[in-house]
Amino acid sequence: MSHLYYDSVAAFEASFGPNADKIMADIPNFTNTQPIIQISEVMQ
Fold first, then answer.
1. Residue partners of 39: CB distance under 8 A and separation at least 6
2. Which residues contact 27 (CB under 8 A, 6 or more apart)?
3. Full-prediction pTM beyond 0.90?
4. All residues at 6 or more sequence positions from 38 whose CB lies less than 8 Å from its CB, including other chains
5. Does the pLDDT at position 7 exceed 90?
6. Cα(14)–Cα(32) distance, rounded to whole angstroms?
7. How many whole angstroms separate alpha carbon 5 and alpha carbon 11?
8. Helices (DSSP H) in 1-44: which residue ranges?
9. Is the CB of residue 25 less than 8 Å from the CB of residue 19?
């Protein structure tokens, strides 16, 4: 499990999108389960 915090969904997309292939290709090195990406808003 990993928690990543971004200022906005657009900021997440800008950082994850260009690197998605590399990130997704690395996941099998750590687990044999399928990843689930959940986007939530942190309320204060």
1. 9, 12
2. 35
3. no
4. none
5. yes
6. 27
7. 10
8. 9-16, 20-26
9. no
